[in-house]
Specification:
- With 520 residues, the protein is mainly alpha-helical.
- The chain is 70% helix and 7% strand.
- Among the domains are: 87 residues, 2-Layer Sandwich (Ribosomal Protein S8, Chain: A, domain 1), CATH 3.30.1370.10; 74 residues, Alpha-Beta Plaits.
- The strands form three sheets. It has a three-stranded antiparallel sheet with strand order 1-3-2, with helices on one face.
- Helix 2 crosses helix 8.
Length: 520
């Protein structure tokens, strides 16, 4: 019984405790619910207030932008209104000016109309007076003709004839005097100008030789240069195009060739081989190629130095390189580059004295023989090649024309062309400028004339222009025009077969028919 009561009491206690706990939890949950509701209300209230604040801010910003836009619009409107008012004012002023001009023009028209009426009246009066004057003049002429015994036309012709004869005689005297004075003064001026140019030009002279001598450290080196069975000397001659002469001359070998450029390459290459000591065909080819590459740079430096010396700017690099090649091209014993610089200086001095274009004269003088840089490699005269090169590399037509006239093949149209021709002649003719073995020169000219004179129908032949041209005069009765054409070809072919010469030789066959009779 007691246990049962205890059990019931425990269960009751548990129930009471559970009830109390449930009541507590419920009250706690209600309190939490109330707190959450209040917090939510506060959050909603804050969000509402924040939203309203943002709406107010947006409204304020929109109002500010609206006010700003309205202000800008009003400012632009005022500015535009001001500009329109100013434009309207200017238009009003122009209208007033046009009205004034129109009024002035109307006034002038009225004045001109009045003057025209006055002039018409005067013209009528003048016409009447002219008629009266013509009548009086005719009466006077009739009286004079009756007194002089000549008509007016005859008297006029006689007077004009006398005046013409006197004018011709006087004009002839004046022309003769002017020509004499011009010829005398022109001769003196030309002599003074050329003499002054030559005197002011300080120049040296570089002569041509056809052989170069290379010194050897000892005679044993000759055998090494020749090589086994002549391999080395053949390789050197093949690579350079120059003949090597190994003779009894002690401690020296001779390089022979008519091209100074190749001969100089061979000399430098041989000296380097001797200094190196390794002489065999492969080494020879290597040294020669290296020397040729260095000489390409050297000719560029020679061209640049010439331009720098003469103060000539803006020339095409290929022309500069060709100028450098002229350093190793000789004509009548004179370096063509040295001769070209001398011609440029002389032409520039004379152009300065005559107050013409110094730059054109100097440039044409320097380039006048540029064709000689390639005339041994390309068919054609150095003049034709030079004209082609200058036009190809952008030189002006003034320079091309002045250069083309220096041998007289073209008629000069400018003063600069005449000066270049004169400077070329001065450079060639001054004492010591050129050197040639006289015997060789004379033999070549005699051989030219001998070849031409040997053909049938040839009367005379003359070698001119230092052997650059042969002129052949034929008998017109024995040679026709067609035969003259073939004769020039045959002579040119015979010259090519029997003579050795630089450049080209022009063959000109002249067939002329002359009819002469005497009146007795």
């Amino acid at each position: 019984m007691t246990n049962t009561m205890l059990t019931i009491g425990g269960l009751a206690a548990v129930l009471v405790a559970a009830l109390v706990a449930w009541i507590f939890v419920r009250r706690r949950a209600a309190a939490v619910l109330v707190d959450a509701s209040r917090s939510a209300e506060r959050t909603l209230e804050e969000a509402r207030r924040e939203g309203e604040a943002r709406v107010r801010e947006a409204e304020l910003a929109a109002k500010e932008k609206l006010l700003q836009a309205r202000s800008e619009f009003e400012t632009a409107s005022r500015k535009r209104r001001t500009e329109l008012e100013a434009l309207e004012k200017r238009l009003g002023q122009k209208e007033e000016a046009l009205d004034r001009r129109l009024e002035e023009q109307n006034q002038r028209d009225r004045e001109l109309a009045g003057r025209e009426k006055t002039l018409a009246g005067r013209e009528q009066a003048t016409a009447g007076r002219e008629q009266e004057l013509e009548r009086l003049t005719a009466e006077q002429r009739i009286r004079l003709e009756q007194l002089a015994g000549l008509t007016a036309q005859q008297a006029r012709e006689e007077l004009v004839r006398g005046l013409e004869d006197e004018a011709r005689l006087e004009a002839a005297h004046i022309v003769k005097r002017i020509e004499d004075e011009a010829r005398e003064q022109g001769g003196r001026k030309a002599q003074w100008l050329m003499g002054m140019a030559v005197q002011r030009l300080a120049s040296d002279f570089v002569s041509e030789t056809t052989v170069s001598v290379v010194e050897l450290p000892n005679d044993e080196m000759k055998g090494r240069i020749i090589g086994r069975e002549g391999r080395n000397i053949r390789a050197l001659e093949t690579a350079t195009g120059v003949d090597l002469i190994v003779d009894d001359t002690p401690e020296a070998v001779i390089l022979s060739g008519f091209d100074p450029f190749r001969r100089e390459i061979a000399r430098v290459a041989l000296e380097r081989l001797i200094a190196d000591g390794r002489i065999h065909p492969a080494r020879i080819e290597e040294v020669v190629e290296k020397t040729k590459a260095e000489f390409d740079q050297r000719i560029q430096q020679e061209g640049d130095a010439a331009l720098l010396e003469l103060k000539i700017p803006g020339m095409h690099p290929e022309l500069v390189k060709l100028l450098g090649r002229l350093r190793f091209r000789f004509s009548y014993g004179q370096s063509v580059l040295h001769h070209s610089k001398e011609v440029a200086s002389l032409a520039a001095i004379m152009a300065g004295e005559l107050r013409v274009n110094v730059n054109v004269a100097k440039r044409a003088g320097l380039l006048h023989d540029i064709g000689k840089a390639i005339d041994r490699e390309v068919d054609g005269t150095h003049l034709e090649l030079g004209i082609e090169l200058l036009r190809k590399y952008g030189e002006s037509e003034e320079v091309v024309h002045a250069m083309a006239c220096h041998h007289g093949d073209y008629d000069p149209r400018t003063v600069e062309a005449v000066l270049v021709t004169s400077a070329d002649a001065l450079s060639a003719a001054r004492p010591g400028a050129r050197r040639e073995v006289l015997e060789t020169y004379v033999k070549r000219l005699e051989k030219l004339e001998e070849i031409a004179s040997a053909f049938k129908g040839v009367e005379k032949s003359f070698a001119i222009q230092a052997g650059r041209e042969i002129r052949v005069i034929v008998d017109s009765g024995k040679t026709s025009d067609e035969q003259a054409l073939w004769l020039s070809k045959d002579i040119a072919r015979k010259i090519e077969q029997e003579l050795t010469y630089p450049g080209q030789i022009r063959v000109t066959v002249i067939r002329e028919m002359r009819a002469v009779e005497y009146a007795k």
